[in-house]
Amino acid sequence: MTESRTPVLVVGGGPVGLTLSCLLSDQGVDHVLVESHPGTSRHPKARGVSARSMEIFRRLGLEKEVRAAGLPAEQVRFYRGRDLVDPDYVRSGPAQEPGEGPEHTPSPGLICSQDTLEPILLRRATELAGARVRFAARLVSFEDDGLGVRAVVEDRVTGRPDRIRADWLVGCDGAGSIVRTGAGIAMEGPTGLGRYLSVRFEAPLGEVVADRASASYFLTVPGRGGFMAVDNDRHWIYQYPLGFDAETDPTDDEFLAGLVRTAAGIPDLDVTVHDTMTWRMDAQLAASYRRSRVLLAGDAAHVVPPTGGHGMNTGIGDADNLAWKLAAVTAGHAGEALLDTYEAERRPLARQVVDISTANATTPAGYRIDDELLLTATYRSAAVIPDPADTGEHEVLDPSGYRPGCRPGQRAPHVRLTPGTAGVTSTLDLLGPGFTLLTADEDPRWQAQAEAVRRAGFPLTLRAVRTAGQQEADPGQWARLLGADHANAALLVRPDGHIAWRGTLPADTRTLPALVGTLNCT
User: Fold this and answer.
1) Between the CA of residue 393 and those of 372, 378, 379, 390, what are the distances in Å?
2) Domain identity same for 274 and 298
3) pTM value?
4) Cis link prior to 433 (omega < 30° from 0)?
5) What is the pLDDT of residues 488-502, one digit of tens each?
6) Domains in the chain, number
7) Measured distance CA(407)–CA(502) in Å, rounded
8) Which residue range is the domain that position 334 belongs to?
């Protein structure tokens, strides 16, 4: 058996693994991705793509394609009623309606189901990494010797085993993660909070819901569950709550069609059942995100109740956080301790997301979808240098709402730019792919600082918010976000868009390279 080598082996080709593959390629990291299934998901499971995930897809050049594949923005509503024809229904929107209040992102979230999203991600991952993205390839076993991982992968078509030597192994292989089990990492938290039957079906419901089109239809009759729109026309998912004491799960198509008709409130509805899936609501978190040369991301690291739509998006955020750190370590720009900041930053965030989503699941009056929750993330780790006055007394996420700012650890804020030449319409478009030194105006004194960082071996780009060709759409917005105490400050922004440092022009050109080295744990 021959052995191939790769810096990173990614196990799992769902939304998280495919996003990680795209981000690694974008960072220039050679890697292999293996997925045991022969193709992408056929079932429209996770559907909500949050603003933060859309910003990541924007960076990858995928935002327009994902948005075109999703539900129209006017249908991102949430219906509550006895059935689909209830004249006394209530229909609400997201926590912040488009155009309501200040603009916090250039890329608002949307509904795009997993079976539609995954092929988009797979096409891009394959464009970038080619045959190193391998579906129908199953991880059989792996050994971690502290210097790397030796994995055995089986081609499920030919049955041929391959041996792969990787510097790092990332498990993106879901709640039943083989990688997590093999690494001996336990999951903590309750299971069995609920058990559900998901029925994918076709029925002519477009005209029925024409005056109440929504993304989700929550039924107020106990035990009825609810509907999820795939296209708000003929294609739907019905979520039916199952008890834990049932001897067998319903499989008869006519019985399932009857459940749909009863829940819809239309006795003669023409229903065609395509397939079903049973799933269990759990609320669990991995005891660790890293063990030696093995790292976890997505559902392998956290199982989030779907009540809130944060599970897949939290996993996509994991990929964004981890990709640049793996890139820095494998390129020799950073020490291996940088990978410890992945757990330090992402595990507390997942803890909060699990708790928020669990609380949503037990709220009788329902809950509102917060598209911007993950924008509020503020990191504390060795990869962030806080302001001297920052006490650190804050949670990772702020469920009370997003308030943009320029404090280290926060996501760099969006400021609309005009005239928006060369595809740049937001400050977020100025960032990456390495570290970005972001100044208010073009200043040649910062150029010497940036060149000193690059001479020290760290990739860095110098960008200004205001230039001869671009200005803020709202004059003075950047200064207001920096705050009066930081009027002349520049931001050092990480490849994942989070602020690593805020400060004024150093007197010594050795200062900034040393600071970047500290952030990279060298």
Assistant:
1) 21, 11, 12, 8
2) no
3) 0.95
4) yes
5) 899 999 999 999 999
6) 3
7) 7
8) 3-70+112-188+284-361
